[in-house]
Design goal:
Strand content: 35-45%
Structural class: mainly beta
Distance between the termini: 55 Å
Shape: elongated
Amino acid sequence: MLVVACLPFNSLSANAADTDATGNTKNTAIEITFDEVVTGDMSGQGYDSDSDWYRFTLKEPSKVNINCGISGGMYSSVQIIDARNNSALYSKSASRSGVDETYYLTTGDYYINFQDSHGEAFDYDIKVTAEPCGYSFESGTANNSVTDALSVDFDTKYNAQLSQNDGIDYYTFTLPKDARITFDFVSEVGAADWALYNNQDELIKDGTYTRINENDGRISKKNSLILESGKYTVSVAKNSNSKTYGAYTFSFDYLENYGDSSANGIISFGDITKDGAVDPTDASIILCFYAYRSTNGNAETSEADLNKWVAARLGISEEF
């Protein structure tokens, strides 16, 4: 066993020696068993003379850690490749350097390739672990566009994942009547973008969910909308600025008898003050809006949209 700084292999007991020479091409890649350490070596006989290929399969989106150590070989290299499009997720060429990388990957096959690029002999150890996200939908189902959106039920929690090679998900639901829909979203990602589309697949609103502050361990948002009857689609996507990935849980909670507080379609409820919490201050603002509507509701200049009313009086901008 190698002793490499990035991977304490001497503390691992499950080992499998790479004695099968059939793993020298992608087509004959050796299947890796999760949580098992594999050892191998490059012969170093001649220019670009040796190459070892391994493969692992994810049955659902997962958090994957790839940990390996390399000893010797001035030009040794390692690649991690997505079999769907033959694209390299990770590529490194260095001497005596290890790899300790964590990825969030979608369902599918993946390859790991070792090469002695300049005929330099080296040894290596590798271990792959996978933590499934508990995916709530059929494995391998694509939902990367509005037309491929997955149908969801109300008042049901779902598990999914924003992956580095699958960074957007679409979900659809149909309202038989006007109702208040609460989107409950929880995730450990740094930020996630959302968007809401109508039955014509036209964008209604969009924005970003973020943690309240840098010390928060996760995003936890629960925002509500009053929506007219019809079909809607919601997307959840990786944020282009934070570029963080991970599992998330969500639900669409349904309430039909929400009260007569809307005159212009969509009205936000919940965190009215946009301070990251739903508390008595938000309730007080809503009650003030009710009082305003009851005394000024018939006036031609009265504002029937809660968002606009709050924005005009408190300086809090409209947001889903």
